[in-house]
Amino acid sequence: MEITLSDRRTIKIEAILELYRANEWSSADKPSELYNGLMNSHSLFSAWDKDRLVGIAMLFLTVFWSFTILIYLFTRIFREKELER
């Protein structure tokens, strides 16, 4: 498994939903809100195994409220492979 990292925001919503559903995150039940939130985050990085989205990390910042939220999510298969190393 060779993982490629990207900061491009050209991720298809279907790939995002597959990742979120695989991790049983309820955000997948609101695809529009999820996609818009990701695309409008301060920073967005994705991890790919060939053409399959296996991970995503996003950073939300706000100067007005002075807080930062970092969220990352990876497929179970990827997490298990990384733990084996």
Radius of gyration: 13 Å
Number of helices: 3
What is the CATH C-level name? Alpha Beta
The major sheet is characterized as: 4 strands, antiparallel
Question: Architecture, according to CATH?
Answer: 3-Layer(aba) Sandwich
The H-and-E topology, N to C, reads as EHHEEEH
Taken as a percent bin, the fraction of beta residues is 35-45%
Q: Can you tell me the residue ranges where pLDDT is under 50 for at least 5 consecutive residues?
A: none
The fold-level CATH name is: Aminopeptidase
Structural class: alpha+beta
| Overall tally of domains | 1
Distance between the termini: 12 Å
CATH homologous superfamily label = Gcn5-related N-acetyltransferase (GNAT)
Biggest sheet strand line-up: 1-2-3-4
Residue share in helix: 25-40%
| Strand elements, count | 4
Average residue-wise pLDDT: 82
Q: What is the overall shape?
A: globular
Protein architecture, described:
The protein has one domain: 3-Layer(aba) Sandwich (Aminopeptidase). It is 33% helix and 35% strand. The protein has helices spanning 13-22, 31-39, 76-84, and strands at 3-6, 43-49, 52-62, 67-74. A 4-stranded antiparallel sheet has the order 1-2-3-4. A hairpin with a 2-residue loop joins β2 (43-49) and β3 (52-62). The mean pLDDT is 82.
